[in-house]
Amino acid sequence: MSAITVENLVVEYGDLRAVDRLDLDIASGEVYALLGENGAGKTSTIEVLEGLRTRTSGSVRVLGHDPADASRDLRDRIGIVLQSTGVERQITVAEAVALYGAVYRRPRPVGEVLELVGLGDRAEARCGTLSGGQRRRLDLALGIVGSPELLFLDEPTTGFDPSARRRAWELVDALRSDGMTVVLTTHYLDEAEHLADRVGVMSAGRLIVEGTPADLQRRSGRTLVSFRCGGGKDELAAATRLAETLGNRVRLVDGRIELLTAEVTAALHALTSWAVEQRVDIDSWSVAQPSLEQVFLDLVGGAEGE
Amino acid sequence: MSDRGTWPGVGALILTQVRHQVRLFLRVPIGLFFTIALPLIMLVVFNAVFGDSTVASPAGEWPTRQFYTGALAAFTAVSATYTNLANTVPVRREEGILKRWRSTPLPVPVLILGQMLGALVVAVLGALLLLIVGVLAYGLEVDAAALPNALLTFIVGVLSFAALGMAISSAVSSADSAPAVANATILPLAFISNIFIPLEDPPRWLDLLGDVFPLKPFAESFQASFHPIDPATTPDASALAVVALWGVLGAVAAVRTFRFDPTPGSVSSGRRRQRGRQRST
């Protein structure tokens, strides 16, 4: 059974098309991660699903409802953790959880919610005095206080230290085992890997890749090789041509040649051999895991090429 | 879905919201000062300065102290509703608090009504406090026969000013400018509405100007219930009609312009712009 079905979703802001003919199908009980750079259309998509943003066109069903109808039943059955929502600073953490819980049909007990998110020891603190990470945990608490069947998490661990992230992941794992459907957006590939049953990568408003984390990892399982090439323009051009035969996403960044390759040893061997033969000086080698941005670029480029 | 149990009752939801709003108000020292303490201080100062003088009225001379208590109680009620909502609603909008509420199953009318009724409760408490101090310290005479009229006038007034406060909160572009907008509208009005200093023989146009806006009709008809010689036991229908008309206009404007999200270009939408910039670097 689908928790969410999206067909041909378009969201436009004036001339800007933030979401471009998006199709999405998320099963009940699934944890789905939406990845993408800032501006890729993740937040716009999620806000349409939450009923907080008006779509330009397309069809959307969330738990059997059109979220644009803003039905009370739907809002009772979903939980929303946004980045852009605040909470009244003058009330305490426990007061906030009780206050927001009281509007749902099935509120969870305050103490239980605070324990789940790890705010048990801050129950009597005023919300205005919380640290950034604690505020995010309060956001999580208010997202789950209504016992939602479907939980939206918009970058839930941004600003968390590693141990807080680990706890947040444990929380999502616990919610998943309760049968909750979770849709999350994130910048962190490891977060998606750890949490998600399926991952969708958005770019320029479209879903360019979708699959299990293992799929995504396989597709982005490349290493970033970069180096600085001595000599003049001719040598640089020759090195670039060579790099293009050894990997893809070759680009020149600040005078360094970058390429993504699945076969690091062979690429390094070919490049050093060439450099020795041509008496070209190659220095400041770097061999590294590509950053998430580079993986995205790789995926975006791959999608455009297909 | 039936397995999720029953909805909380509307009455309980409203009550929770009103309690929440009053609790918020009581925990903000600056709001407490301007709304509750400042009119009390003015009452004390005005009585110390003008206490022995009298004010002429068609029904005869009355002591200034009697004049001030009613006017300042009315002004407290306006501070608690109009000024309070005009200041706090834009902050809630800008901090994403309204957006969070909108994502919950709380019905939107309950959210709006809760803020207005919370302000109304604060207005009642503030005005009562002033009247009690007036009675105990300055010999304010309260005629029981005039109390129903005072109460009616008070309720019409605070509801109208609460609606106007909600309306003006939508016109405020950012939380930073909210206090300026609230004060720039209400303070000049207070001066031409005989709140602080009773204007003796004002020019006709100033008198008329005061009559057109809701503060003077509200304050004067509320005061009239505390007139020492001839307290008004029935409402001043035309004055109340002016106040109510403003209230209805305010309510219509508030409903039509209420926003959950900050307007583009206000402070809190800067985060999105900032993220856009990060992307371009």
Describe this structure in words.
- The complex is a heterodimer of chains A (306) and B (281).
- With 306 residues, chain A is α/β, with parallel strands linked by helices.
- Chain A folds into two domains: 2-218, Rossmann fold (3-Layer(aba) Sandwich), CATH 3.40.50; 221-289, Alpha-Beta Plaits (2-Layer Sandwich), CATH 3.30.70.
- Chain A has eleven helices and 13 strands.
- In chain A, strand 11 (248-253) and strand 12 form a beta hairpin.
- Chain B is mainly α.
- In chain B, 70% of the residues lie in helices and 1% in strands.
- Chain B has eleven helices and two strands, in the order H-H-E-E-H-H-H-H-H-H-H-H-H.
- Chain B has a two-stranded antiparallel sheet.
- Chain B is globular, with a radius of gyration of 21 Å.
- The chains are: A alpha/beta (306), B mainly alpha (281).
- The interface between A and B is medium-sized, with 32 and 32 residues.
Explain briefly what this protein structure is:
The complex is a heterodimer of chains A (306) and B (281). Chain A is 39% helix and 29% strand.
CATH topology type of the largest domain in chain A: Rossmann fold
Supply the number of structural domains of chain A: 2
Q: What structural category do the secondary elements of chain A indicate?
A: alpha/beta
The poorly predicted ranges of chain B are 265-281
Biggest sheet architecture of chain B: 2 strands, antiparallel
How many beta strands in the DSSP annotation of chain B?
Answer: 2
Instruction: Give the DSSP E fraction of chain B (strand runs of 2 or more residues).
Output: under 5%
Shape of chain A: elongated
- β-strand percent of chain A reads 25-35%
Q: What is the count of β-strands of chain A? A: 13
CATH homology-level superfamily of the largest domain in chain A: P-loop containing nucleotide triphosphate hydrolases
Termini separation of chain A: 31 Å
Going by CATH, the architecture of the largest domain in chain A would be 3-Layer(aba) Sandwich
Q: Rough shape of chain B?
A: globular
